[in-house]
Each structure stands twice: as structure tokens, then as C-alpha cells.
Amino acid sequence: MVEVATASENALDGMNDAARSLATVAEAEALAEKLGRVRAGIGRVIFGQDQVIEQVLVAILSGGHALLVGVPGLGKTKLVDTLGTVLGLDARRVQFTPDLMPADILGSEVLEEGEGGRRAFRFLPGPIFCQLLMADEINRASPRTQSALLQAMQEQRVAVAGTLHPLPVPFHVLATQNPIEQEGTYPLPEAQLDRFLLEVDVPYPDLAAERAMLLATTGSRDVKPEAAMTTAELLAAQALIRRIPVGEKVLDAILALVRGARPEGTSNEMVRRVLAWGPGPRAAQALMLASRARAVLDGRLAPSIDDVRALAEPVLRHRMALSFSARADGIRLSDVIRTLAEELG
Question: How do strand 119-125 and strand 107-113 relate by DSSP bridges?
Fold first, then answer.
């Protein structure tokens, strides 16, 4: 009797697993179709930045934050505004300056006098209490102000006057950084850089894209983005991403890439010679989530090693550093990462 009952339970578990797998496949296919509309909606406003749009969407679908690096005038601010509208998120923008204080971002407590002369403190939330925060030129603020974002980015809550205040769900930070005009800036510390899931390089648009942009943005009609998702749908998509299966070969490739980029634990002479320090475990977590998100974004039901190769630079670039001798020899970090990614099976 016990053996018969056990066999029945195993068969039932197998049927439940199969049903769950079919449900996941159906959800992933529906999400891929919806994300196609999201990309099309963004593409009507942002021209010639397909790879940038893909990587930013990967970061948001993975539940993370992104650092956008590019010269002025490439549409970084426009991209964040468009994402807020298309994804149905409450988006706000903070311009980081040297005199910006933590309270200007987090909020502060004010003393109010009520009826009967009773005084009490009331918390006034700052602009960080939104779902999509654009931290414009984040490296222009002081380290004290930059560090105010650390707890918010990692724990999705802030502490003001000893009281914890949860942030809205979802919460994402898209920060911009100008690679030129570095006078008066404060480089982001490694601890904060590691909080960004991806570092997205924003290049100049090609000729065709720049031509289309000129025609679309200098006329009498201005194209406005339209909502393609809701907040609830985005949260469901982020939950689905974490259920996407990852094959053993992809898992091994992620571990080989991240561990192979650490000069302390590798036999690769090139890595030991040119790198001062390598990525930590958070880089492997970022690669795992981002690979899943990229696969779903492309309409696939499981990530491949090609996803790992494609995301190697934006995931690892801000989590490792060249040695002094390598910088003196003109070696570029992107070339090192590309070499390591090409060695994956």
C-alpha cells in the first residue's frame, strides 16, 4: 500500500512539474510579445541605440540598476523619461551637483506644530521615493551624497533620523556619467559601482539613425511615447525571469568567465599580468539574471553562451581594474574582457 501511494505521489509531482513548465513557456512567450511592443515604443522616440535599449531593458527586467556612460546629447535623459512612460513607472530625475546633500535625495524630517501647541516631526519624502530614478551625472556629487544611494539601491529602503522608510516597488536607478569634463568630479567607489547590474556604453548613432533623428525631432510634430506595460506586468515579468531555466553549460561558462577574471585565483598569465583586481560573486549573479532576461527579450526560453558573451562587457567592465603597468602599456579593459569571453566553449 505504501509503495503504491508513493508511486502515485511521484506521478502526481511529475504531472505538476510538467504543468508548471508549460505555464512558464506560455508566460515567457506572452512576455516576449509584450516586450516587442515595449522596444518598438521606445524605438519611435530613441533612434540608433538598439543595443543601449536592450541592455537597459535587461537591467530592469533583472530587477537591477544601470550606469549609462556617454558624452552629452546622446539621449540618455530622454531614454529614461521614455522608459518611465512605456513601462508605466513613476519616473523622477535628480541633477547631481557638488552642493547636493543626502537630504535633497532621501528627504528630511520637519518640526510641525499641531492643535493645542503639540509639536511633532513629520517626514517629507525626497525624490528617491519613485519607481525609476534618474541620477544625472552622478559623479558630480560628493562621496557623502553618492553613498546615500547605496542602501537604497541594495535594500530598497532608506534610513532617515533612525527610521527605515521602504521605497516603492519596483525601484530602479538609472545613473548617467559623462566620460569627459572630469574636473570637479568624484569617481564612484567600487562598492557603489558593484551595485549597478550593468554599465551601459552609450555610443554616437550611425548616419542613418542620426538622419532619422533629425527629421523626427526638428519638425512641428513631436512623437510622444505611449504606455506598453503596467507596473504589475513588470513585476510579473521580473518574477518570471528568475524562473527561466539555465543549462549546465551556461552556468559553467558564467563561473569560468567570472573566476577566470580574478588575478588571484587563475593560472592565466595574461590576467595575472594586466589586472589589479577582478569581479566578485555579485558579477556572476548579474550575469545569470541578465542572460535570462536577454534570452526572453529575444523570444527564447533559455539563455545560451552567446548571451554570456554579449553581456560580459557591461556586467564586468565596472567590476574589475587594470594594473598600473597595463594602463601604461595602453591596454584596454574591454579588450581583456573580450578575450576572456571568446575563450568560452
Answer: antiparallel
Q: Is the Cβ–Cβ distance between 175 and 135 less than 8 Å?
A: yes
Distance CA 290, CA 197 (A): 8
Q: Is 176 helix (H, G, I), strand (E, B) or coil?
A: strand
Residue numbers of the domain that contains 283: 245-345
Q: What is the pLDDT of residues 174-225, one digit of tens each?
A: 998 877 666 667 778 887 888 899 999 888 888 988 888 888 777 767 778 8
CB 295 within 8 A of CB 303: yes
Strand (E) or helix (H) holding 315: helix 305-316
Residue 249 lies inside a defined structural domain of this protein: yes
What is the value of pTM for the model shown?
Answer: 0.87
Q: Are residues 222 and 302 in the same domain?
A: no
The Cα 122–Cα 133 span in angstroms is 23
Cell triple for 134: 534618474
Gap between the Cα atoms of 328 and 321, Å rounded: 13
- CA end-to-end distance (rounded Å), the chain: 50
For residues 235 and 319, membership in a common domain is answered with no
pLDDT per residue as tens digits for the range 217-259 = 777 677 788 888 899 999 999 999 999 989 999 999 999 999 9
What pLDDT digit, counting tens, does each position of 128-164 carry?
A: 999 999 998 888 888 888 888 877 888 888 888 778 8
